[in-house]
Amino acid sequence: MAWFNFGKKKEKIESATEVVKEKIETSACLGVFDFFALGKSDQLLILGRLKGNLKLGDRLQVCNPGESFESFGELTVEKLSNGKEDSNFLTDDPLAHIVVAASEVAGRLKKGSVLYTSKIDERQLLSSYTDALYTSFVEMQNGDMSNEDYLRASLEDSVEILRLFLWDCRENRQNGSEEEYQKNLAKIAHLEEVVRDKLLEADEVYVIYSQLTGEPYMFSKTYDRGDDGYLCTDPLIHLSTSRWYHHYKETFDSQPNTQVRRIENTEDKEAIKNFLGSAFYLNGALGIIMNSDDVCIKAQNLVEKPDFSNLPEIQVPVMNPDVVRWLLLLGQLGKPDTEDKQLVDRLYYGFLSKAVPKAKFLIPVRRGENFPEASDEAKEVMLERGASLDLPVREGKDGRQAISLFTDWKRLRMVFDEEWNGMIEPAGNMIAMFDYIVNGTEYLKAGCYISQDSFKEMEKLSAELNDAPKQ
Is the model's pTM score more than 0.85? Predict the structure, then answer.
């Protein structure tokens, strides 16, 4: 990299061209690639791509678009260079060198910061921000992040760096060696870890919810593979940073049957983690989309799956993510009123049928008259004559009675209060006596009704799908 000489002042030549330049109104935007303290001086050298024109003495606003477009201070240009020689004026320089005084404002600089004059709009700021991150972290650092980079980066920064590196791997690194490929995978994994850390520590995150199911909307695409059948991509939930959401708010808010909810983190930084754990291991989402479709991260790389291996079976919480996943996808699909929707509806129902016969549900139960109190020590309970137990049974379809079942405690508590406990019901155990109302909450689309006949069909379809060769 060429460095310029700050020691000698060149004699200023007053040419007609330079006089014209001096009169040009400054309009500049510079994305920061890197910055350095100049020896023991109180000055800072900033490197970046300059768009527009800039002269000595100009005052520049500073912002970190990965956090906010609002300026957090002002810096004055004390020296300028194109990397080869000092200059009083620069225009559209790919590697401008700017010297400013070290200050509290300069102390908030990071790679991706943007220096700009007035009348620069958000679109230009965002362009310089993205370009600076790509140049710094992809071209110059080859996907690596130093500890200082990690500490300074915001959630938005980390997501954008991962997006840009993934793009570069697809576009420019396809023909590399196997060793390079493995190195890039390791770098991607590390960048995902950075996103995870920043996400779990974030003050807030915005999530797209389905108004039909009351749960985070699951995004999945279906592809026709010809003779190989159809492929459903992993269902993912969509998260956005605050800046991303507000930038695209109109687009988000215009989507039918959806709404965006703000998830606010708690002081102990557990709220976002708990939200993700519920979305993954209760609802069955298999990962997240972060801001754009270009950044997708698997569930297990964000929040570990709960480990109940050391608990007695009776204490293991009832969870059925494989059932809930397809219930939610079916529910948010709505009425299958087109051929495409009918196809997807059949596919989702097939996956639901595969999961239901293997499930263990919760039946709400309440102690009635003469029913003994529960005891953790007692292995057996003696029932007296006349002891009763309340079950949520109601009139079902076709003259049969139906009983309410739930896939987990979260759904059970949406309907039944603390007076009710839960009894485990292996799927099919009571189907001869009662039809099943699964997850009959206020969000009816998020549940289903299973008759005895439909359960038998599910068992048959489940056996066929389980015996089918894996693609």
Answer: yes
